[in-house]
């Protein structure tokens, strides 16, 4: 059954897969705890180290939402680690979900059914998109209550729109990483490499401007970079500082391209697994 035919059946299959993942997430809520805790706790040490190096800050530029240089630094780092933590969670959970289904035998059962393979690649996505929203809210609260940042409501709402736009694209990246579980028994090593490379090139902890030119060029091609830059622009300059049309086209186009590649990789992995008899087991 092709994806273009019987679209309503595919949609119902995706809804059913999402409901299943919600039930699992409610039973094991550590994914939500991590989504709130890690983006808030992890950047603190970096903020304190940086503040110790530059002092506690001087009066900031007039007209900005963020009042002092030290708070500006906190917002910069927290927004970077928000995207870093969210992407890490997406990569880890997507790979773990497919690996778990493979070990339990449910992967092979699903592949024998007429259900679209999208249920396996994106069934977990709604849960992980909610974790991104929770992380964003937790980071805003930490910045306002912990560091005294003055964040305009329009900037906070615009940042939420960035999260909404970026979520499907980041989920598609995670789905692509998850397909590696069909080619190897453990994909944790590749996931760790992907996480390390994203932290290196996407400007989560340092501006791209201070990176080597070759590294900055790579970073500007990556969706997590677009996401964190858009978040920082909305916080520091307001919604008008973001080119929403360009950002939307980039993210939607990238989502479609990566989703197509993920389906192709999944089909290749499924065919390989059927020939070798390795779709199930450890």
TrEMBL record:
Keyword Transmembrane helix attached: yes
Keywords for the protein's UniProt record, in alphabetical order: Membrane, Transmembrane, Transmembrane helix
Regions that span the bilayer: 31-50, 70-92, 120-145, 151-184, 196-216, 247-268
Domain ABC-2 type transporter transmembrane as annotated: residue spans: 15-236
Pfam families: ABC2_membrane
Locations listed in the record: Membrane
InterPro entries reported for this sequence: ABC2_TM, Nod_factor_ABC_transporter
Segment forming the signal sequence: none
Record carries keyword Transmembrane helix: yes
Domain of life: Bacteria
Topology of this chain in the membrane: Multi-pass membrane protein
Protein name, as recorded: ABC transporter permease
Organism encoding this protein: Catenulispora pinistramenti
Source lineage: Bacteria, Bacillati, Actinomycetota, Actinomycetes, Catenulisporales
